[in-house]
């Protein structure tokens, strides 16, 4: 059980870092903090290319893996017997 918990903690750490990087790679939609850093000059708000759609898909899959690892670690912590 300890090996599984350690593996889930490693997965959680890696997915957390990758998720942060992927979110920062997304294009700013304007009207928020992205305007402050020069992201407010986008010409087409609703259009996104193939790369942006793939980035969205990869971010969603990684977020699901992050969520599943959090839930699994919570269940292991709650039901572990000392």
TrEMBL record:
Is Transport set as a keyword in this record? yes
> Where does the UniProt entry say this protein principally localizes?
membrane
Q: Does the keyword Hydrolase apply?
A: no
Tree of life domain: Bacteria
The record lists the membrane-crossing segments as 6-25, 55-76
Report the subcellular localization. Answer: Cell membrane; Membrane
Tell me which stretches of the chain form a coiled coil.
none
User: What family does this belong to?
Assistant: Belongs to the SecG family.
- Would you tell me the protein name for this molecule? Protein-export membrane protein SecG
